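Risk register update: the risk of archive-format incompatibility is retired. Evidence:
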Amino acid sequence: MAKPLRLADILDPPKKIKVSYDKTTGQYRDRGKAVPQSDLDLAIAGEALRLKTELRIKATALTEGRISFEQWQESTAKGLKDSHIRMAIVASGGKTNTVANSYLIAGRNLKSEYENLRNFAQDIKEGNLSKAQIVARAQLYSASIYRTYFETYHFQKTEREGFTLAKRDLDPFAKHCPDCPNHATGGRFIPAEQVTPKGVDCACRGNCRCRLTYKFPTDKKSLTNKVLRIS
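Archived output:
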């Protein structure tokens, strides 16, 4: 049985791992075989879980006095930056396929997260949060990486790979945030530039089970992108 895909296989693959990206289909391949979308979904969700754990550990260290306030703020910002950049690279098809606009998407989203982090830090300084609230709030920042992934993925598919049609479907068995139903396309393919990527203008920040499908107008090739929530 093949081993499940790890982000490291894409970001910094060892020589024995032969993961590549096929621009004609918009899919990763491992030793020539297409990587199942479910494997990529789990790898991305795993990164969100890894970051959530990292942020919890750092916030706990702050509340217990094991690191300084400045160390916490600096290391938290770096952890967010590293993870957002990973998402931009993975959504683009690997490092060699990542262009400036992909990094700009990550940078724009990080700018917003840094502002949120400054407000968070101010609340801590003013004593507005209990230790438990600090740890709980810190972990919420892990969900922000979904927006960078899906926004970059949408850019990659529509601007660089030529997918001109897309649709966004709701999972009929999922609970939705107030915004996701407004972004669904009713099962219809529409011009891809009119489709809102997951995580954009959504209260759930992309941490949902909406499904995005991209395709060309004249052939059967299509790609579906869904990240499963792992908590």
